[in-house]
Each structure stands twice: as structure tokens, then as C-alpha cells.
What does this fold into?
Amino acid sequence: MVFRLPFKALFRTSTLQDDRNQRPCFVRALALSLLLVAAAWQSVPAHASLGAGVNTVELDRQQIQATRRVTTHTAYSVHELQSAGGALVREYVSTNGQVFAISWGGSTMPNLRQLLGAHFDSFVGSANRQRGGHAHLVVREGNLVVESGGHMRSFHGRAYLSDAIPSGVALDEIQ
It folds into this structure.
């Protein structure tokens, strides 16, 4: 069975007596379309990074179409993702293979839903938000800390899991 909606029905006006109150049916169709798009968007799997395994770094690289460079330190490695548009994302991976921190900078904000993964909802729903000057935002929710700032064409920030930072690693190293 095929469901068909006549195209003309989308633009038909309701039959109200007062012309000021007439609403085109396409408003309802538009609302339904937006609802369906939102539902589909919510079901798209995020490429979880923060707190996930090192294998998610490659998924992030593919998603932002970037080149990757890896720098190894004693307690962690840094996977630097550089996009053609100039955005830079650094993912900090501990020796046990867990992404414990992320930092970003560039002319556009990265997709934080993708980079924060399972922690994105905590970030968005947090009541522990502090705003500073120059659009600086700090969110602390449990072990999640997100610091973001900047202005148009110059964004920067970092996110980390405070209980996952390897011993001996200073917060200043996450840049």
C-alpha cells in the first residue's frame, strides 16, 4: 500500500470565515517535516570520543575530513586532526587506549555532539555553567569539564574527564 499526499493539499487554506485567521495547510506539513527531521537527527549515531576508545579517533577524522598526526608522550598520545578548513582538534589518549581529553581551535566550532559523545547530554543539560567575558563558558558536571570560548572565526576550547587524566599529566598540557 502506497500513501500519497496530493501536492495541492499542502497549500490549501482552511475554510474559516475570517480571512485573517486562515492558515495554509503547508504550515502543518512543514511542522510535520521538521518533526520527522528532528526525530531522524536524534537517531543518527554519534561518533563517541571523550571517554571512549582510541578507535573513535579515526571515526572523528573521517567525519571532519582531516589529516591525522600522532605525538607520543610518556603517559598519553595526542592525535591531532587538521581539517582543510583550518579547524584543529586534538584528542588525548591514555596508554590504556581511552580518550580522556579533547581540545579544539579554529574558525568554526567543531561538532561537540560528535566529540563529547555520551557526555554531550550532560554538557547540554548541566546547571553548573559559568559564563565569563568574551563568550567564555565553563561547564562542570560530575567528572566532565568543558571550557569553551572565542568569537566569530576564532573558537577554542577543551573538554576532559577529570577522573580519567593519567597521573603526572598537568591540565596545562591539554591545549
Summary: Confidence is low (pLDDT under 50) at residues 7-23, 25-48. The chain has two domains: 8-43, 55-173. Residues 8-43 form one domain. Helices lie at 7-10, 25-43, 55-64, 112-116, 120-125.
